[in-house]
Amino acid sequence: MKKMENQGSLKRCRVKDNFWTPIQELISDTVIPYQEKILNDKVPGAEKSHAIENFRIAAGESQGEFYGTVFQDSDVAKWLEAVAYSLERKPDEKLEARADAVIDLIEKAQQPDGYLNTYFTIKEPEHRWQNLQECHELYCAGHMMEAAVAYYQATGKDKLLKVMCRMADHIDARFGEGKQEGIPGHEEIELALLRLYRATGEKRYLDLSAYFINQRGKNPHFFEEESAKRGWTHFGMDPKDTEYNQSYAPVRDQREAVGHSVRAMYLYTAMADLAAETGDKSLYTACRVLFESATHRRMYVTGGIGSSAHGEAFTQDYDLPNDTAYAETCAAIGLVFFARKMLSLEVKGEYADVMERCLYNGILSGMQKDGSRFFYVNPLEVIPGLSGKWPEYKHALPARPKWYACACCPPNLARLVESLGEYAWGENDTTIYSHLYLGGSYTSADGTVVKSQSSYPWKGKVSYEVKPGTSFTTLAIHIPGWCKEFTITVNEDEIALPVKDGYCYLTRDWKDGDKVTLSFSVKPRRVYADPRVREDAGKVCLMRGPLVYCLEAVDNGKNLCRLLLPRSVSIVTAHEKDEDIGSYVSLRFTGLKEKSFKHLYQDQPPETEPVPVKAIPYFLWGNRKQGEMRVWINEG
Amino acid sequence: MKKMENQGSLKRCRVKDNFWTPIQELISDTVIPYQEKILNDKVPGAEKSHAIENFRIAAGESQGEFYGTVFQDSDVAKWLEAVAYSLERKPDEKLEARADAVIDLIEKAQQPDGYLNTYFTIKEPEHRWQNLQECHELYCAGHMMEAAVAYYQATGKDKLLKVMCRMADHIDARFGEGKQEGIPGHEEIELALLRLYRATGEKRYLDLSAYFINQRGKNPHFFEEESAKRGWTHFGMDPKDTEYNQSYAPVRDQREAVGHSVRAMYLYTAMADLAAETGDKSLYTACRVLFESATHRRMYVTGGIGSSAHGEAFTQDYDLPNDTAYAETCAAIGLVFFARKMLSLEVKGEYADVMERCLYNGILSGMQKDGSRFFYVNPLEVIPGLSGKWPEYKHALPARPKWYACACCPPNLARLVESLGEYAWGENDTTIYSHLYLGGSYTSADGTVVKSQSSYPWKGKVSYEVKPGTSFTTLAIHIPGWCKEFTITVNEDEIALPVKDGYCYLTRDWKDGDKVTLSFSVKPRRVYADPRVREDAGKVCLMRGPLVYCLEAVDNGKNLCRLLLPRSVSIVTAHEKDEDIGSYVSLRFTGLKEKSFKHLYQDQPPETEPVPVKAIPYFLWGNRKQGEMRVWINEG
């Protein structure tokens, strides 16, 4: 359990393959400009954002009222962070100039004492720091710190970094041991302060992060006391609901992933990062327990977490309803953050497996193929007439909207996808880790360069060309948990390697130009849920490689619940090209369709007739004609 | 389509058998006295009622404030109606004296102009008749009219009848063609006015009922206009939600059972009764369409209707979730009312089938075996940790409470069970109909007496001993839809009779003492839901005779979703005797239990091991140790 890597500039990990590069290009060319327009209220018909204007008003450059949620600033922060990664990948002077202008605004919006938050600056300056439970001041600060670090690393420009150091100093002067007691109602600043610490070397930021983490839950009545002291509320949230924000117990005593799932993931990510930074074993143990709780018992097959719309929250073990699933895009993104930090603590394939599950399914599903619309909620079943309409299903929209009043997910997705290289690679003194099968290249601290080519996820072939540096000895390649057979060749020779905790370790006397090729089958497979998952009993999910598949009405007609996939039926792949969703691999099989009854109930099981069935990758759902969708298929 | 019978005094239809008589005795000996105590706030730990005290205050006999819902009076009305049926079945001077005293109070609470409603009399006299949408004045009046008719028929005492005629006159003077426009927000008075008309012969009551029915939905903006006119709200209900109270279209144009399911059933019952009374074919057609909508596509296997807690409402075809089911006891009772009136319009076995389905399952489940606790909501699946706790499942309690703030269901169940004889029998000029297999006797208008003996539902044997009257020619016996084979003997001779629309018609030259015996098997059977019911796909429900069975954790351990019932496995019956639930027949089989996974998802289907499984009648669930329950079993 040692800290194995210092994640830093994206320049060391380039992505270039046929799957992710087009998505990154879409983010750079379409999503980032689109989101910039949104933030500037220039997209007709989309939810009003006003986020840039809020900064303009706070900076004294515009007149008007604050508009939006109390955490509106974070949309700008996440956009700037995505811009930073995009610039790092692909310089763009005009975009950089526009981002610089936004940063100028942010600097001007900062108060003389270092405070930065447009809501409280414009609207309720007298209420600053009184409502950590509901008011997201620390959360917004955290996101802006992340943006500041990313922008600094991408461009070398430190204006925003200095702004956020002043804000961090402001916070540090107020909160901590012997100062004012405080923990954020929405975790985020903890992980951001660790990034700020690493970017600046300022140990106070590490200590402040540790304070927020270690203080959490020590006084489980903190938010109640805070609420009583101030006597006002912003959202009317219950300060006694300490599970919601993971403040019910000290973090090391927490045993289950509970409450608001995004809050939980951001906290756990910070805990794992702090454990890696400090070597704190008790914190590592808590992270491990919480990771198991979240992913062994409370995660959808798509990597979605937080099964209930009420509180956007975890419920209890094995409670994973498909039609009312919340599975917020941000929560799956947060799980990737958490899994990535766990990988830095210990190399275990299951962390990379979770990243892969989330990335290729419950995260990518958050964005329309053309980058113009986004899901906040990612259901595994859509029922026309109910989904998005009936109260229990109101949150589970059957089509992606243009934007949201609470717009956390779209920019979160943008920043993750643009920084994907960091999730694909890792290193320690002698080893380079390939966690994800991304084409591109990785340059390690000792100057080793590994160039990868990948046709994943559509094909099971990845190759690595190595130019060894000074201390490099080992290339460690993740073998996904679902992959039972594979071959590895080095140059022309096939070699047999054991899988150790999900990784193959290839140690040799590396020569410049050595080429390692990994091949495996991505034949369609049937996946089952633990029988304690009530909603998936008797059902099967189709996967191919990392991709979860689903059925849509546009391919299969109405009443998808009438389709059975008999256990003996073979599933074939087909290469498709579609106007709306481009090229992809579908799965096809001859299913059985249950015939409807004369009466609602009868003593005979339904008769069936064979029908052709087509499944498409889950991440592509909702891009064609709106209608029914389901991931879990009844098994015949 | 002619009106075949004039349902009247319960004295003509006596119930006496080993299944229902103990339940009726329980109602008389336990439930009615218990509810009387509740209404008088004498049950510690139960929800406060204050319903009698409200009448006392309105009568000027007590000082204090009104307490309870705006429809609190109806609890007293339904209790009085149950008392009336109980007295008719089994005289009880003391109970009658106490009921007389309550009626004295009600008379004193009536205002000089005939108005009767304690909420508006005590609390908001200035707001009378301004809020038909929300305030239940007509609803409460309707229930008290039903009580008045029942009490008059049971005891011959007409004090309450006169009170309610004055109230009906008061309403008639205000509402109708050429008078103030008005329809009730919660239907009930329509069916009550028809009863009042039949008890008194006053045609104005028939006309007023017809006005309320025919006016409904003619002006779909009525509640909006009413709301705008008064400028205040009681519950904050949306006056535009015209589906909720079935006012979105004229009743003859309504094609789907929508909205609040109890409201819907009370309306449809009145529509069917009015159609029978007037021979109105268009109204009959609407009833038929609505009956099919409610029972062919929107009814649980238990007879429960109204699948959503939001608005206690119907949702859409085949949407019948088991764990979040609402399936209010009152709604199933309302469906029995409706089905019974449809039977008066046309003799079709499906109406009797629906009555039977509701009575033996989704209605009886509403009451604890000992009569002391009640369910409002009747889920088909209970999940510890979620049911009754988590927001989506909050309404689906895992155990019956003592009483409810909105206490509509317990007295509704009491009045239905006490008047069950009326649902069991019917007649027209020459024929007596046995709709339900109840032991007891029926005396027809021509003096025919049919005595029945029944061991239903535990055994498939019913016999009828006939003493023919002047015009009797035919005994028509309902054959349940699920019963495919039966034998009928007359005296000692077996005879073959066709089933016509669910009934066997036995016409002969009847002799005094002729005995007809019906025998059929009640062997366990598997029941399937139409494959369009998403939640029941791949599942099977066990039934025996009219009884739906369920699994409880107390018999089968946790994780009932892991139990499979293979299609080839035989199901045997066992006679049980239990401390808490008495004697009953259980179903037992060797099921397969799916083994849990090492990981949440895996590529192999679960392994299984054989386990003994025990199912109990659904109506008995929740009487032993609290825990998981499910009706629909995964089929292996």
UniProtKB/TrEMBL annotation, chains A, B:
Name assigned to this protein: Glycoside hydrolase family 127 protein
Domain Non-reducing end beta-L-arabinofuranosidase-like GH127 middle: 431-520
Higher taxonomy: Bacteria, Bacillati, Bacillota, Clostridia, Eubacteriales
Occurrences of domain Non-reducing end beta-L-arabinofuranosidase-like GH127 catalytic (ranges): 14-421
Listed PANTHER family: DUF1680 DOMAIN PROTEIN (AFU_ORTHOLOGUE AFUA_1G08910) (PTHR43465)
Domain of life: Bacteria
Domain Non-reducing end beta-L-arabinofuranosidase-like GH127 C-terminal: 524-634
InterPro entries linked to this entry: 6-hairpin_glycosidase_sf, 6hp_glycosidase-like_sf, Beta-AFase-like, Beta-AFase-like_GH127_C, Beta-AFase-like_GH127_cat, Beta-AFase-like_GH127_middle
Keyword Hydrolase belongs to the record: yes
MF annotations from Gene Ontology: hydrolase activity
UniProt source species: Candidatus Egerieicola pullicola
Pfam families per UniProt: Beta-AFase-like_GH127_cat (PF07944), Glyco_hydro127C (PF20737), Glyco_hydro127M (PF20736)
GO biological process: carbohydrate metabolic process
Protein keywords: Hydrolase
